[in-house]
Design a protein that fits this description.
The protein contains eleven helices and no strands. Helix 10 runs antiparallel to helix 11. The protein has two domains: 129 residues, no CATH class; 94 residues, no CATH class. By secondary structure, the chain is mainly α.
Length: 249
Amino acid sequence: MTNDDVSSTSQALAFSNNASFVCVEDLPSSVYYVHISENSAFSLVAPPLNGSNYQSWSRAIRRALSLKNKVLFIDSSLPLPLMNDSLFIAWEKANNIIVSWLQAVVTPSIAKSVEWIEVVAYVWCDFKDRFGRGDFIRISDLQSDIIVLTQGDLSISDYYTSPKILSDKLDNMTSISNCACSSVCICGLDVVRGYRENDLTINFLRGLNDSFSDVRSQLLIVLAFCEEDLHTCIDSGTKMFLTCQASAS
């Protein structure tokens, strides 16, 4: 073996030994990794949580933390290491900075209410328990808003978007579990979800201006007698509606 071979082998061994001591928080792929530019004053989302916007705020927070590979800290799926665990320091650093991020995107009064909670998963649970539970009065208001919504001066695009926004808010407060059946649904959840989507479609059609009365009647007939699945019926009806709208214009 030549001197060059010996030197190369020694360098490789040295690199291998050093690699075994790389701290987990220094690996960009690690959930414990925090970039040097991410300080405690970093603002994840806007506007801040004020109590009434929890649904949209929490979705934005989860999306932002997902981009930073930090969702595991708030959904309690990341075990809290013991203080004598080698991961504790890395966990504590990441945990504390996420707590600071959350406190920076809530109103001052809400931030003060959780200032003594040190584990970010507990902070997240506190927000969910206080602001994320379905408010029966709010649910009733959303249902009423969907039923009485009419097109009025709105364009078709804006009118279609309005009930969808209300429906999405309602789904967040009264979500239906996903069907866990292997092939054909036997639990009934798909049927329940289909009823909700059907109600939304019917309410949309009924709220159209009188200038679309003929198209509305045709679409209601399509939905009433369509023998295919709901999504196919709605898709067929929507295409018919767009065709008739284009002809009218």
